[in-house]
Amino acid sequence: MRKIYQGAIFLILLSLTSCGAFFNQPFDTGKARIGENTSSESILTGILPVKETVVGVYKFRDQTGQYKQVENGSTFSTAVTQGGTSILLKSLEESKWFNPIERENIGNLLNERQIIRATRKEYAKNSKDKQITSIPPLLFAGIILEGGVISYDTNIITGGSGARYFGAGGSTQYREDRITIYLRAVSTSSGRILKNVYVSKTILSQGISANLFRYVNLRRLLEAETGVTKNEPAQLAVKEAIDKAVETLIIEGIIDGLWTPKGGEPIVNLIKEKYLKEKEAAASTVLLDRKLEDRRGKEAVSLSTTSNQIAGDYSNSKSHLGANLAYKFYLNKPSLNLNIGAGYFQLENEQAFKDDFVSFDVNLEYNLLPYDNVSPFVYGGIGTISDVNFSNLFVKFQYGVGVEYLPVNNFGIKIFGEQNLLLSDELDGFVQGKRDDYYWRIGVGLNFYLGKPYKKVKSVIFE
């Protein structure tokens, strides 16, 4: 039975390593294939220009000078691809808004044209057609695109988790890097910088492993280990960032009137509306892809089911279910609110004390992450508790902690725990010792927010 148990644990840990990666391990070399595509989502999908713009790119390269990180020794391999110009030219061609011309290796092109002229001139000595030596002129660019990869930040986020039990365990690790590129359009007639944009892209690396190390019998040791790592290709990350930079350059150019889309003003307005929404979303997004936006209304009604247990002068206390109804409204900050509530519950010590109570509470509550959909909160305040006949009224203080999750805006699910401290030792009808009575409350509740969010997020900092 023990062996079956150990085998089951190992199979579970094995499944954590991703079935797709484990059962499709590469055992042979792969064939050449067409390059992978990046994200196909674009505001400009299906929108074409009235006329393509001729652009030239002399260089778009790595400007960070960074080398790859290695655990031991040193390496002269760069962290970022040096072929940024080629990637940019491909993105310009795929956008169908630009007509890129060769400028990175213009010397090779001019040399080849010179060879053509010399060859034709030699051939023309014995020919009556004197026009044979002429070749078409080169296209000239109205706009030059400049820029490059200006930043490669490593280990901006690292982490992991793991567990081990009786020689069986598993672990996960992850790391996130980030590249940033700038792209600018320069007028060749005036030298004026027409537009300047920048884009950031994260690069994710993950590792998952599981292992088993157990003595299954006398002098019989079972040891097994498996795992998989996944690293996002830096070249694809650079390509996706460049694609996004080209798209942003086109969109901002359309809004500023640098180039015109087919369809006229209605298409311009549509693009502008979508782009403003995207900018607003980007402005409220920080590390870990946390989107900082107002999710809660100015007021809320809260319904909770609680479990209550007394800690008084008697032993053998029992837990009983109760209910709470509360109303809260936000003060000057979106994270601080005033909470007014009432509750009904029962407290009991076996064969000693049992009674029904009602409570009234006033709390100040503080949300630690007010713009996230998962937010811890702390609260504290003053209140009263009495029996249902209001014959005995006691003043108390309470404090607690909890976590709220918002699956959608204006609706939250919360769990919380609190301690209620009385200023009297007579809650259970028995006075003994120096300590006043108190009771615990643990609950699960729903928050229904009313009205529009308190305020808009205008600026973002890294939290």
TrEMBL record:
Keyword Lipoprotein included in the entry's annotation: yes
UniProt keywords (A-Z) are: Cell membrane, Lipoprotein, Membrane, Palmitate, Signal
What is the organism lineage in this UniProt record? Bacteria, Pseudomonadati, Bacteroidota, Flavobacteriia, Flavobacteriales
Protein name, UniProt field: Curli production assembly/transport component CsgG
Single GO cellular component term: outer membrane-bounded periplasmic space
Against Pfam families, the record matches this protein to: CsgG
Cited Gene3D superfamilies: ABC-type transport auxiliary lipoprotein component
Q: Where is the signal peptide?
A: 1-23
Q: Which InterPro entries match?
A: Curli_assmbl/transp-comp_CsgG, OMP/PagP_B-barrel
Q: Which domain of life is it from?
A: Bacteria
